[in-house]
């Protein structure tokens, strides 16, 4: 169970990282 929860944590962060980067770039432009 611990391993499954650990895998779900980083996966969500990695998925949100690209979306946040695009938003920051649009604001910069």
UniProtKB/TrEMBL annotation:
<protein>
    <submittedName>
        <fullName>Uncharacterized protein</fullName>
    </submittedName>
</protein>
């Amino acid at each position: 169970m611990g391993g499954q929860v650990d895998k779900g944590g980083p996966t969500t962060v990695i998925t949100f990282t690209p979306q946040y980067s695009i938003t920051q770039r649009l604001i910069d432009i």
